[in-house]
Amino acid sequence: MIIGVPKEIKNHEYRVGITPMGVRELKQTGHTVLVETQAGAAIGMSDEAYIEAGAEIEGSAEAIFQKAEMIVKVKEPQPQECRMLREGQTLFTFLHLAPDPQQAQLLIESGATCIAYETVTDNRGALPLLAPMSEVAGRMAIQAAARCLEKAAGGNGVLLGGVPGVAPANVVVIGGGVVGLHAARMSMGLGANTTILDRSIDRLRTINELFEGRIGTLYSNTANLEEELKTADVVVGAALIPGASAPKIVTKEMLSLMQPGTVLVDVAIDQGGCFESSKPTTHQEPTYSIDGIIHYCVANIPGAVAKTSTLALTNATLPFVLALANKGPKKALLDDQNLLNGLNVHRGKYTYRAVYEALGGEYIDPREALAD
């Protein structure tokens, strides 16, 4: 198979879909890998390193898309990339389609087979390709919040961990999944007073036992959330419904409960955000203020630590890339229900129900779609 790796073009996105190590693994199994020039240069993965591993360097994304049978990326394709996809071609990347009707429509029109990292599962029902980026994003959320709390950045001027004789910041994490757990771990490690809200009693029990009570746990209902917002310095939105639009947990009306300079970090912004007042931002302009409440809604948070993120992501994705290349997409998908769960679009139809329910259009069961 010919596998193409274009350079990412989203704002301040320096990750790359395959590392030189991944190229070497693919070459050893007989595949051709085309890498756009400078695709990994920003994180120390030079064209020379790719060539040494066996890749062929192409001078443009157009050449990659024209020649490759499978495109492997990191972030969702931008409109100009979507328009270069074609029927019979496979796209393997993060998609986050539910809140992005433009991208979804362009992928439908392309006729390509589009597999989303964020809905691939494992035998426990977890999301193994989303997990490493969720780990990074959770930890980065607290780093970003600490900077945003600084007065010069518009925050309330509170040091996250406080100092002896002065109380630390109050950090509220909404959602006890992978993002929430790592955000809470980082927050606690920096000395902040940290509380997690979740609707799973079992999950709250596990968190309580894991941290031996050093992180507060509360059942997530409106009353508890509103009480926490009144004293919060930082609120991290980490709620997720796989493949679907994120639930709007903090409403615009709730902003009035918070003190000026409070920081909201919406890690769920890729799926539409879990704060009603959220809108996507970039690393170039990461924040905006509404009524004195600072919103940090960067849609590719892990891109800020692109080298760590690339290595973590490709560790998880490479076995699936190898399966798709070795078996061909159709057989690889039909042989592995977990990979099949990642199929979102195939030959002009939605094959992931949560995306179809969010956007409408035409849905077909993924096995039925592949049986053609």
- Rounded average pLDDT: 96
Radius of gyration: 21 Å
Structural class: alpha/beta
Helix amount, in percent?
25-40%
Question: What is the name of the CATH topology of the largest domain?
Answer: Rossmann fold
Number of strands: 15
Say which CATH homologous superfamily of the largest domain is assigned.
NAD(P)-binding Rossmann-like Domain
Shape, principal axes of CA atoms: globular
**What summary fits the major beta sheet?**
8 strands, mixed
Uncertain residue ranges: none
Can you write the helix and strand succession as a string?
Answer: EHEHEHEHEHEHEHEHEHEEEEHHHEEHH
Oligomeric state, counting identical vs distinct chains: single chain
* Count of discrete domains: 2
Kindly, what is the distance between the CA atoms of the first and last residues, rounded to a whole number of angstroms? 21 Å
Beta-strand portion reads 15-25%
Q: Which CATH first-tier class of the largest domain would you pick? A: Alpha Beta
**Number of H/I helices:** 14
Q: What is the strand arrangement across the widest sheet?
A: 3-2-1-4-5-6-14-15
Give the CATH architecture of the largest domain: 3-Layer(aba) Sandwich
